[in-house]
Amino acid sequence: MTSMWKYILILILTLFIFSGCAQKKPYNYPNYEIIKPEETCKPNRNNIQELLDSYLGKPYVWAEEGPHAFDCSGLTYNIYGSMGIEIPRVAREQAKMGKKVTFKNLHYGDLIFFGSTNKRSKYINHVGIYLGDGWFAHASSKDRKVTVSHFEKEPVYVKRMKVCKRYLSEDERAKYMNCDVPLKKMEITSSHYTTPWQPGMQLPKKAVPS
Q1: What is the largest distance, in Å, between two alpha-carbon atoms of the chain?
Q2: 192 assigned to active site
Q3: Is 72 in the active site?
Q4: Which of 41, 68, 72, 164 is catalytic?
Q5: Helix H or strand E encompassing 138
Q6: Is residue 163 predicted with pLDDT exceeding 90?
């Protein structure tokens, strides 16, 4: 009996040592591993505003979903994920979910998806969060940061708009998580296993890798 307990103790210690020695992956640009945000608040528009306020001005880094750098869909993925609303990681997949709304019926927190100025093209490559009165927040590869834009001041975004979606109802009592078409499954991880971009790290020379 004593020898059995010794064996169990040695096994536990071995597992502890190996787990302690295991190191998470260092940051390497672009980091395509999807780090799921920790749920920190309830789904409501006040929390969307608070999260946005804390992220404004943070750098644009391709494939990052925060908390220190974002690309466009990484920003929306983080904000909704932090409220416990799980949406896909990339913009074209995010656009498949939620309730479709028209531009004139946009409400604070709705997502706006963009593509090329070609009206025939349905390809989506950018996403922003509507703030009201023509303003929207987004992680901009042009400005290289999380910023706020206005449709009148930058009318090209009107030409690029493809679809608008709502995940949270106006009264915040319902979640629209239906999907138009099947979603592409993507593996997620946590910061325990991989390293996101950190302040002090060098910013990539190109906003979008070639």
Answers
A1: 79
A2: no
A3: yes
A4: 72
A5: strand 135-140
A6: yes
Structure token digits, residue 49: 């505003």
- Of 21, 68, 138, 150, the active-site residue reads 138
SS3 state of residue 128: strand
Q: Which domains does the chain have, with CATH numbers?
A: 30-189 (3.90.1720.10)
One of 21, 41, 68, 126 is an active-site residue; which one?
126
Contact 136, 128 (CB under 8 A): yes
Give pLDDT, residue 3.
62
Q: Look up the pTM and report it.
A: 0.89
For residue 62, name the pLDDT band (cuts at 50, 70, 90): very high
Question: Is the distance from CB of 111 to CB of 104 less than 8 angstroms?
Answer: no
Burial 100-131 (b: 16+ CB within 10 A, else e): ebeeeebeebbbbbbbeeeeeeeebbbbbbbb
Convert the pLDDT of each residue in 67-115 to its tens digit: 999 999 999 999 999 999 999 999 999 999 999 999 999 999 999 999 9
User: CB-based contacts of 146: which residues, under 8 Å, 6+ apart?
Assistant: 52, 55, 56, 57, 58, 59, 60, 70, 75, 137, 138, 139, 140
User: Is 126 a catalytic site residue?
Assistant: yes
